[in-house]
Design brief:
binds cytidine-5'-monophosphate; Rossmann fold; seven-stranded parallel β-sheet; 450 residues
Length: 450
């Protein structure tokens, strides 16, 4: 049987990051996915991430298709079995309802002869506004299936309906739309799919996953098992890699952090079902599937992106952030004058991102720092735990295997004790850590019973 083909249109909105998880679910189920992202959508997710996940070219503007050599917009809009708009913003739905076609996404929506499913996401006032409600009614009348948004606290701080339904619920709606007869444009067949009453299917992650450990041969948790997604519904922020602090246009202060452990943690968190925001310093590592990545260069940029990424359930600060930056980076290359004088380089202290987060009003429920130590590993970690105000320090014994290696021996130091693990490959450390984090989050933020 041929697998369903989905054309996904990603609008602009803070919820766009959830489209990444949706693409992942669809691909995992074997669906063929092509993504189109609006200009506003590109502010929230990158075409590169979507291309990597969908394993297909991502289309961003009408002129990509202008010469019609590769694929014309009519063909793109019709070769899919279903067009999915997620997130469907107020603006996008207004254009759909009005038949406006002023960019690639809206042109495809007007040109398609296939069923369309829209998953709205917007501020509660915008959702409840008479204009939006009128547009939703028009769209449903035209045969578009418009899901009901979820209710809850929104990124803007307000409460009410307007949140993008969870990716698993959109996935279930997609399956329902594919198995029902195609709606007839002009009033029959479209309708509401309240995310809360969507059937749960066996091949999507369960919101209350089994806590059973199906350990593989090495005793590590196996997140390839769809039913074992212990971080499902959790939002996790991870920092990784070094920072580079410019001295002048050609020089910078750096360190030897490879970013491997942080990237392995991001990969394991996504595999375990979390929504993952990875804030990465300069490293040449591929973005793990399902992870939203923001690249930064300096500690100050990293601090700003961390703040932007809040709120999260857990933050894991793996980055080796430079302690100092040049107090006054030169606009031009600094020249030596041959006199042997001391270099004119004053250093300023960088913000401590971890310590700052510990004091933030948006402090994550679980805040984890890392510490690379060569001696008195546990004692140094205990001191750091108190100094930084975090919940755990993952103390990393780098005496035998310095930064950049493939394995780690870690001790998880918390107020309640020390958990010392054998030396393990970095990806195994990451997976074991995700199990521990999932248990801790379940204890601190209990799951609602079904
Ligand atoms: O102080 P030290 O660099 O040893 O602390 C290490 C921990 O603190 C790591 O989790 C690191 O990511 C975090 N850190 C930070 N901002 C800094 C320095 C360290 O978030 N400026």
């Amino acid at each position: 049987m041929t697998k369903p083909r989905i054309l996904m249109i990603i609008g602009g909105g803070i919820a766009a990051y959830k489209s990444i998880e949706l693409v992942r679910l669809l691909r995992k189920a074997g669906y063929v996915v092509r993504c189109v992202i609006t200009r506003a959508g590109e502010q929230f997710v990158t075409p590169l991430t979507l291309a990597a996940l969908s394993e297909n070219k991502v289309y961003t503007n009408l002129f990509d298709l202008k010469d019609e050599v590769e694929m014309g917009h009519i063909q793109l809009s019709r070769e899919a079995d279903l067009v999915v708009v997620a997130p469907a913003t107020a603006d996008l739905m207004a254009k759909m309802a009005g038949g406006i076609a002023d960019d690639l996404a809206t042109t495809l929506l007007l040109a398609t002869d296939k069923p369309v499913l829209a998953a709205p996401a917007m501020n509660v006032r915008m959702w409840l506004h008479a204009a939006t409600q009128r547009n939703v009614a028009t769209l449903r009348g035209d045969g578009v299936t418009v899901m009901e948004p979820d209710e809850g606290e929104m990124a803007c701080g307000e409460f009410g309906p307007g949140r993008l339904p969870e990716p698993a619920a959109i996935f279930a709606a997609i399956k329902a739309a594919l198995s029902s007869p195609p709606p007839l444009a002009g009033g029959v067949g479209g309708g509401t799919v309240p995310s809360s009453v969507l059937p749960l299917s066996s091949d999507m992650p369960s919101p209350s996953p089994s806590r059973q450990r199906e350990g593989d041969l090495s005793g590590q948790p196996d997140f390839a098992d769809e039913d074992h997604r212990p971080l499902y519904g959790r939002r996790i922020l991870i920092t990784a890699g070094p920072t580079h602090e410019p001295i002048d246009p050609v020089r910078y202060i750096a360190n030897r952090s490879s970013g491997k452990q942080g990237f392995a943690i991001a990969a394991a968190a996504a595999e375990a079902g979390a929504e993952v925001l990875l804030i990465a310093g300069p490293v040449e590592l591929p973005t793990p599937p399902g992870v939203i990545r923001v690249d930064v260069e300096t500690a100050v940029e990293m601090a700003a992106e961390v703040e932007q990424g809040l709120p999260v359930d857990a933050a894991i600060m793996v980055a080796a952030v430079a302690d100092w930056r040049a107090a006054d980076p030169a606009g031009q290359k600094i020249k030596k004058d041959g006199s042997g004088q001391v270099a004119p380089l004053a250093l300023a202290e960088n913000p401590d991102i971890l310590a700052g987060l510990a004091k933030s009003p948006h402090r994550p429920t679980l805040l984890i720092g890392f510490a690379a130590e060569t001696n008195d590993v546990v004692a140094h970690a205990e001191a750091k735990l108190a100094r930084k105000g975090c919940d755990w320090i993952v103390a990393n014994d780098v005496a035998a295997d310095p930064m950049g290696g493939e394995s780690n021996r870690v001790h998880i130091v918390s107020k309640t004790g020390i958990d010392s693990w054998d030396r393990l490959p970095k990806h195994a450390v990451a997976r074991k850590l995700m199990e521990k984090i999932a248990d801790e989050l379940d204890a601190r933020i209990p799951r609602q019973p079904d």
